[in-house]
Amino acid sequence: MATSDASLQIGDVTLIVHDLPAVAQFYEKIIGLERISADASEIALGVEGQVMVRLRRDAQAARTSPREAGLFHTAFLLPERSDLGAFLSHLSKMGQSLEGASDHKVSEALYLSDPEGNGVEIYRDRPRAEWPLKNGEIAMTTDPIDLQDVARAAQAEWRGAPAGTVIGHVHLRVGALDPAELFYRDILGLPVTTRYRWANFHGWDGYHHHIATNIWHSKGAAPKTSPRTGLAEVGLRGTPEALEALVARAGANPVDPWGLPFALREKETAPA
């Protein structure tokens, strides 16, 4: 299963930043996104003309603390393991260090952060037939990963994020799991796919997760009340039928309990 097989998926994220050129350079040079549009206050980046990241400058915004509700990471899903291997070699050549790497059984993932501390995951999925199950839930784990074996999977040099790259999921810091579950499960219609040590994972239509929430550092965090750096909006893309059902449950402008808004956009259809 691909995340795009789901009737709803993550389309894009909007980040508030202080140093727009520096953060944009990271997503272009390190992550390999292309610049789609730009002006003095906003730069949009993505793949094949599809916007995935919008960076908005706000020099007056307060710097978000890891103990506040907000972004844990944006996860970019690569089409193949060979792409992940090429990306890993690219990081080494660029002198960019990793902050972590894990084998989750459903996926293999690399972790780093942009210049303003916004978490980034780059990952590849295993085929759905290989996803382990336990008591009817997807049994994700956090195991060591063989980085040398991943690097050996590369078949060519990294030339930027390849066609087919998408935002596979967004992982959020929240103040409490129960109200987060009520919103994401009952309002956005995201079933819980697995529970994991102070974190819940939610996915549409059987995908392992499109949204994750955790309280690892943010337990008790209050809703956002003033402009902050970091995640400002998540864009969802869906079929007309899925969007209509979502609007019926959540309204046209759903907002989570910590003030994170979701923008609803129709999926683009492939040309005939």
From TrEMBL:
UniProt KW Metal-binding keyword: yes
Boundaries of every VOC domain copy: 9-125, 166-272
Origin superkingdom: Bacteria
Keywords from the named record: Metal-binding
Annotated Pfam families: Glyoxalase (PF00903)
Metal-binding is among the record's keywords: yes
Molecular functions (GO terms): lactoylglutathione lyase activity; metal ion binding
Descriptive protein name: Glyoxalase
Naturally occurring in which organism (per UniProt): Thioclava dalianensis
